[in-house]
C-alpha cells in the first residue's frame, strides 16, 4: 500500500541546445483573461530595438505558481549572497526598463 502512496519523481529532459539557454535582460509581461504571456528579449547597446528570444505562454494558475517559486528562490539567494540591489531608474512597475512589467490585454 505504501508503494501506491509514494509520489513519482518528475523527469525532465534537457537537450544540449536548450541547456545553453538564452540571455535576456528585458521581459514584457501581458495577459488576457485566460493566459499570461512572458516575452524575454535581449536589448543591446547601440541597437534601436530588442529582439524577443523566447515567448512563454501559461495559464494564470501556473503564472502564480511561477511567482511563488521566484519569490522563494530570491529569498534563498539573498540569504546566501546578500540583497539584490535594483538601481533607482529601474524601480517601479511602470518604468520602461529591463524586466519591467507591462500590463494589458494580449
The percent range for helix content is 25-40%
Dominant shape = globular
The strand order across the widest sheet is 1-2-3
Order of helices and strands: HHEEEH
- Mean pLDDT, to the nearest integer, reads 84
How many strands? 3
Give an overview in words:
This protein is α+β, with helices and mostly antiparallel strands. It contains 3 helices and 3 strands, in the order ααβββα. The protein has helices at 2-5, 16-19, 60-81, and strands at residues 26-31, 36-42, 51-58. The N and C termini lie far apart (48 Å). The model is unreliable at 1-5 and 92-97 (pLDDT under 50).
Question: Key features?
Answer:
106 residues; 3 helices; three-stranded antiparallel β-sheet; disordered N terminus; alpha+beta
Which helices and strands appear, and what pairs or packs with what?
Blueprint: H1 2-5, H2 16-19, E1 26-31, E2 36-42, E3 51-58, H3 60-81
Antiparallel strand pairs: 1-2, 2-3
Task: Please summarize what this structure is.
This protein is 28% helix and 20% strand. The chain has 106 residues and is of the alpha+beta class. The chain has a three-stranded antiparallel sheet.
Amino acid at each position: 500500500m505504501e508503494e501506491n502512496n509514494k509520489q513519482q519523481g518528475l523527469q525532465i529532459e534537457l537537450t544540449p541546445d536548450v541547456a545553453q539557454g538564452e540571455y535576456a535582460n528585458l521581459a514584457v509581461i501581458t495577459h488576457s483573461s485566460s493566459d499570461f504571456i512572458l516575452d524575454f528579449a535581449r536589448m543591446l547597446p547601440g541597437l534601436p530595438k530588442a529582439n524577443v528570444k523566447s515567448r512563454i505562454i501559461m495559464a494564470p494558475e501556473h503564472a502564480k505558481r511561477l511567482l511563488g517559486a521566484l519569490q522563494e528562490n530570491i529569498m534563498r539567494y539573498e540569504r546566501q549572497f546578500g540583497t539584490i540591489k535594483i538601481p533607482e531608474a529601474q524601480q517601479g512597475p511602470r518604468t520602461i526598463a529591463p524586466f519591467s512589467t507591462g500590463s494589458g490585454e494580449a
